[in-house]
């Protein structure tokens, strides 16, 4: 009896406490968690809260204001903020967006890490929507947002932000991130425009796509596996001919004056290694082990298609791209010509390879060893002898052309 009475005595206060909490409206759940997240700051009028922000650093302001901004989404909190006489919720949201822009430029990894933690328990789609809502006020983060994209760090900062946000996410979540950005920026329609129209007819759009892909999706400093994933997502939806056009737009040579893609660079005359380095690095990335969705045949076909964008390149430029792409890609490309019986084309490639090695001061022994390896690919002595005969004829024609050029002055 004694224990029973003690039990009843202890149960009465708990019942009163529950009834009291219901009368006060403090029902457990999302609203109560939201109210407690701000602590003592929830009692401050909005204009006082903004005065407090003036004494904090940019990072401290962002850490605090993003929590405060989060609470504006709850109706119960909105009623409290309506009592502020001089500052509206809209003004505070504008202040928050402006602060986000400033902080993302000063230290883009800070908001990325913060929003990564704040949205940890949300589904990927909701996380992306919330992050977009927070960053939507930064015009320089948009594909067509900045009036001077060549002189703006906005897209690069957005790339660092995105890199921090998605670090450690699995491949399925990163697919959703890409699809979200693809739809948000309407990239599918814009890419379709530039790859199906005449090269250079949409110069501004080509530049915008190049800067967005290189700054945001292919952010400098990303891991090779991440860069291979994003580049694969950009290229794979398109046919091979469009993949080559798009690869040239993103990594091809550009004008030092206005940043636009120079389409005639590979056609009009020999070019230097600087103009080809971006394309060579992209090809090596797709050929590496990080790009699991690409086979060797895919990459070789892409290189072959690239050499006729927008028209057939000078053979010297084609060979220089192969040399910059590395020994493995170079040999695989040459071996594919041998296997497919294209002896005349292979002979021209080998002759110009010797020429480029001489002009760019590569070791000529490398070209000799490469030709010896290619000769072993032929399945019969007749095919190998036919190739050597084509090689001899090509050298003879080149020497005659050089002699005529010298005699002509």
Fold and architecture overview:
The protein has 409 residues and is mainly α. Helix content is 70%, strand content 0%. Among the domains are: 92-202, no CATH class; 223-255 and 266-325, no CATH class; 341-408, no CATH class.
Kindly list the characteristics that best describe this protein.
409 residues, mainly alpha, 22 helices, disordered N terminus, FBX47 protein, ARM_FBXO47, FBXO47
Radius of gyration: 31 Å
Percent of residues in β-strands: under 5%
Shape: elongated
Low-confidence stretches: 1-31, 72-89
First CA to last CA: what distance? Answer: 122 Å
**Structural class given helices, strands, pairing?**
mainly alpha
Largest sheet: none
**Helix proportion of residues, in percent?**
55-70%
Number of helices: 22
Helix and strand sequence: HHHHHHHHHHHHHHHHHHHHHH
- Number-wise, the strands total 0
What is the mean predicted local confidence, pLDDT?
A: 81
List the helices and strands and how they pair.
Layout: H1 2-24, H2 30-37, H3 46-53, H4 58-71, H5 75-81, H6 89-106, H7 109-118, H8 124-135, H9 154-166, H10 171-184, H11 187-196, H12 203-217, H13 224-235, H14 240-251, H15 265-268, H16 273-287, H17 296-306, H18 315-325, H19 327-339, H20 343-359, H21 364-375, H22 381-407
Helix pairs in contact: 4-6, 4-7, 7-9, 9-12, 11-14, 14-17, 16-18, 17-19, 18-20, 19-21, 20-21, 20-22
Please summarize what this structure is:
With 409 residues, the protein is mostly helical. The chain is built from 22 helices and no strands.
């Amino acid at each position: 009896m004694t224990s029973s009475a003690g039990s009843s005595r202890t149960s009465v206060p708990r019942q009163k406490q529950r009834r009291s909490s219901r009368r006060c409206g403090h029902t457990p759940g999302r609203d109560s968690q939201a109210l407690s997240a701000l602590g003592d700051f929830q009692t401050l009028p909005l204009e006082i809260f903004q005065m407090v922000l003036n004494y904090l650093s940019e990072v401290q302001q962002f850490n605090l204001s993003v929590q405060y901004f989060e609470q504006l989404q709850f109706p119960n909190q909105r009623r409290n903020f309506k009592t502020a006489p001089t500052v509206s919720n809209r003004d505070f949201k504008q202040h928050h967006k402006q602060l986000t822009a400033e902080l993302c430029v000063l230290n883009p990894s800070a908001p990325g890490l913060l929003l990564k933690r704040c949205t940890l328990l949300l589904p990927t789609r909701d996380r992306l929507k919330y992050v977009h809502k927070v960053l939507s006020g930064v015009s320089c983060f948009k594909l067509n947002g900045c009036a001077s994209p060549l002189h703006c760090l906005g897209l690069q900062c957005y790339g660092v932000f995105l890199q921090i946000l998605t670090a450690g996410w699995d491949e399925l979540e990163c697919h959703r991130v890409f699809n979200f950005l693809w739809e948000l920026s309407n990239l599918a329609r814009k890419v379709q425009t530039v790859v199906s129209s005449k090269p250079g007819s949409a110069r501004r759009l080509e530049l915008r796509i190049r800067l967005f892909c290189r700054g945001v999706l292919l952010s400098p400093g990303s891991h090779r596996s991440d860069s291979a994933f994003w580049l694969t997502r950009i290229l794979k939806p398109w046919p091979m001919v469009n993949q080559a056009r798009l690869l040239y737009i993103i990594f091809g040579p550009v004008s030092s004056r206005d940043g636009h893609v120079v389409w005639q660079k590979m056609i009009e005359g020999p070019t230097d290694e600087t103009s080809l380095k971006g394309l060579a690095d992209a090809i090596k990335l797709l050929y590496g082990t990080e790009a699991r969705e690409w086979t060797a045949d895919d990459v070789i076909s892409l290189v072959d298609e690239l050499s006729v964008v927008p028209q057939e390149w000078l053979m010297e430029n084609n060979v220089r791209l192969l040399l910059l792409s590395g020994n493995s890609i170079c040999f695989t490309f040459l071996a594919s010509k041998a296997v497919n019986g294209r002896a005349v084309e292979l002979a021209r490639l080998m002759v110009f390879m010797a020429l480029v090695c001489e002009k760019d001061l590569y070791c000529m022994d490398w070209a000799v060893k490469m030709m010896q390896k290619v000769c072993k690919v032929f399945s019969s002595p007749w095919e190998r002898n036919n190739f050597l005969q084509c090689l001899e004829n090509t050298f003879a024609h080149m020497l005659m052309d050089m002699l005529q050029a010298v005699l002509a002055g």
